[in-house]
Structures are given as structure tokens and as C-alpha cells.
Amino acid sequence: MVGAATFSPGKAFAVTAIELVEDGYEVELEDRRKEGSCPACGSCSVRSYGWHRRTLQDLPIAGRAVRHRVALRRWSCANEQCSRRTFTQADVTVFQRYSRRTLRFNDIVLHMGRALSGLLAECFFERLGLSINDDTVVRHLSRETEEKKEGPPPRVVGIDDWAWKKQHSYGTIMLNVERNTVIDVIKNEDGQFAMPSPASLMYRCLGLTRGLFLQS
Ligand SMILES: [Zn+2]
């Protein structure tokens, strides 16, 4: 048997209610952390100052979507010199500060984007009953590109076309095949479903690697 705790995305959050609604489960979560760290000054606080409510989408369970309604504890900063009087604190093992989805959900969005590109990933998510559009997928890929520009150059590069918006805007994605990471997402401004010129691609690739091998 599994209990209500199965629905919790992390140890800091207790499940207080679960409701089966038309499009999935709505799970009420309560923040059980005993202290918070002010994002402005770093002071630790144990003075609770009410609650902040937010919604997080999580991975589906048994084919049903899961939406968390989280009561995050709001803290009063203990530092009288601090510019922040109150604050809430994200649990970095569960979600990022301004994200509307859990980290594990975003991880799946990223994997789907790498494997299927934006529109196909959107179709796949729709079959799973999840509302993720291609713009969201592309945003995740672009963010990963920014975060992973450091490191050794790629040896094997995969290149593929994809549609940002069907019949309107197309682009090209470049992947590090060995690491399964995105190197770059290039938007073709002319709206044509065509790769950038070979010279243009070579110019970009030569800036990244030596002894290039193109795999499409
Ligand atoms: Zn503070």
C-alpha cells in the first residue's frame, strides 16, 4: 500500500488533502520547515509570518495529472537592518524560486525537448494529459544552452530542423550527441523550413569544436 505521502514532492512538504478532480489530482501541501534563510541578507529566521500560496505542476500518477497547491511558510527577517521584512523560501530540491513546475517535471520537459523537439514534445505531453506547449519546451532548451556553454568542446554534433510555430517560424537545433545536451537553438528569421547555409553552420561549429563530424 502507498499512502498520501507518495504525493509529496519532498520531505519538507506534508500532504494535508488529496482531491480527485476532472483533470487529475489536486494535492494540498503544507511547508513543514522550521526555519528560513532570508534571500536578501542570509539571516536565519524562525519567526513565522503567515503563508504564501502557490501552485506547482508535478509528474502524473497513474495517468492522471498532479497539481500541488502549496502553502509555503512566510518568514519575518530577524535582521532589523535588512531591506526585506518578510520572505518565502523555495526548496531547491523540489522547485526553483519562480517556477510553476517541480524540478522533476522540468527535467522531463527538457528530455522530451532534446528527443522530440518542440511541437512533437507538445503532442506527446497532450497524450499524457499535460498542458505543455512547444514554447515552454524551447524555453527550457534555450536555458540549458545558456547554462552549459562552459566545458570542453563537443566532438560529435547533431543538427536538426524544427518548427517554433508551424508555417510561421522555423529553427535549427544543434546537439552534443555524446553528452545529449543542447549546444545552440538557432531561429531562422526568414520563416523557411530550411537549415542555415552550410557555411554559416560550419562557422558556428568551428567555433565550438576541432575535427568536426556532422551527424543529422
Ligand atoms: Zn533579511
Automatic annotation (TrEMBL):
Residues annotated as domain Transposase IS204/IS1001/IS1096/IS1165 zinc-finger: 35-79
One Pfam family linked to the record: Zn_ribbon_ISL3
Transmembrane segment boundaries: none
Alphabetized PANTHER family for the sequence: TRANSPOSASE FOR INSERTION SEQUENCE ELEMENT IS1557
Descriptive protein name: Transposase family protein
Protein species of origin: Parvularcula maris
